[in-house]
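Side project, low priority. Logging it here so it doesn't get lost.
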Amino acid sequence: MSAIYVDSIKDKSDTKTLATLSSSTVTLHTDVTVPATTSACEKLYANDVSGVASFSVDGYFDDTKYGFYEMHINEVKVSTSADVNNFLGRVNTSGSAMDGSIYWSASVGMYNNNGTATTMDRADNDGSTYFNTDNTWDIPNTNEQYRRNNYALRFSNPQSTSSYFTCNIHSYGNGHEGSEAYDAWVSTTGVSVVTLSSISGFTFYMQASTSSILSAEILLLGFKK
């Protein structure tokens, strides 16, 4: 392959130098504009939380700009053990969590039960005051220091006031209470929120009131229209 050696780049009319090149740098002409980002995906929010009873991600939606959103909540683990320690959520409107009986859900899942594939279908939320983020797997605690649960929410048009809000949650992990029968699990959950209010964000918390969220890594992405 033959190499091409140049020390400048010009426009088609050969009247303006767009860039000059040296052995180590490329210098753009002042008339050249480089977009701030060329990606359709933008990071809207990122944060790690620890030692909190709940956390909220709010105020980052803009449906005029973004046609689709993803929220990733990874490395979720709690500080205390409890028989019922589900990871729950609510939507926010104007910055506050909505706790009315407006949540419906359906989910399918599977776990490795000591080498046997065991399925579990659920419909936990039927006009509930919260939504389950998975198939009611209990979050790993401090006695399971190497186990974590992970969640990915996908949704669009949260600010719409002409239709009910829906989202899909894909979740997976390797912990449920203290049982080694759940060394690997996966579930998909559909959530429906019966409200015509513009949704501004989410609030997440633990079902067991004595538990605090020991750790969670949060990332919200927006995909441009």
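Brief comment: The chain has two domains: 1-34, 41-224.
Revisit when time allows.
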